[in-house]
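User: Can you predict the 3D structure of DUF3093 domain-containing protein? Sequence below.
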Amino acid sequence: MSSSPTTPHSLDSADDPVLYHEKLRATPWMWLLVVLFGVLGYMVLAPINVAAGIGSAVVLALITVAILVGMGSEIIVTKQFLQVGRAGIERRFVGNVTGYRGDDAFEQRGQKLHGLAYTNLRSWASPVVRIQITDERDRTPYWLTSTRNPEQLVDALGGAMYARPEDLEDENIPDWLREERETQQAQQRDDSEGHTPTDSNTD
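Assistant: Sure. Here are the predicted structure tokens for DUF3093 domain-containing protein:
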């Protein structure tokens, strides 16, 4: 299976129980937008016609609700299958899994994001998990999904949280994650050594 939209796998069966399930729904404060847009809709037309103002408020509120509901998604992990938003894949095609928080998550969302990666990102859940896809028929190198519980998600997928350079001596870090981080550091050193600063002073 690939990163294209799929029909959800048969979940929580006796042979394939759910190991992790998360609903990425909008946070409570975002639902205040329903009230805000409703009030704005009323204020725009109420001075002209009260009935039109009420109608505008109702329409804008319903549109906002539909948008917020549509922005929600689910992450479901079973022993054999992974569902992230609209995409699903068999676990045998899942490679290394790494969780990120803080600045590291921000970089994965931005400057380090691969152009072919499948993303399931939500602004109200800043941590992310990167899931490598090993299916040779799939051009997608990895999935990147928002999650409120990166530690639990990577644990369900047999992965690990991202390790900073100062944490590489931790014995609990998987060898593959340590090697990946060391490779990144080596590449950064090579890039730094190959860059020759230019004199920007002018008379």
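The CA atoms of residues 60 and 66 lie 10 Å apart. The first strand starts at residue 18 and ends at 24.
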